[in-house]
Amino acid sequence: MLSLGNAYLCEEPFFIKTGILIDSNIEKVKSGILSLKKKFPGKFVQEVDTDEILEEL
Fold first, then answer.
1. Exposed, middle or buried: residue 50 (CB in 10 Å: 0-12, 13-18, 19+)?
2. What is the pTM of this model?
């Protein structure tokens, strides 16, 4: 069963679908971060460059 699952999970369509879902979820995280920054304006105690972190993904 493991070799069958491995064969399925290593097929190109699965990788493409997974990549699209990851990109979609990263966009949702980016918009959520922007929403929170608008909700809590001002200086943060520690500024984090979230765009750079998310681009690395």
1. middle
2. 0.65
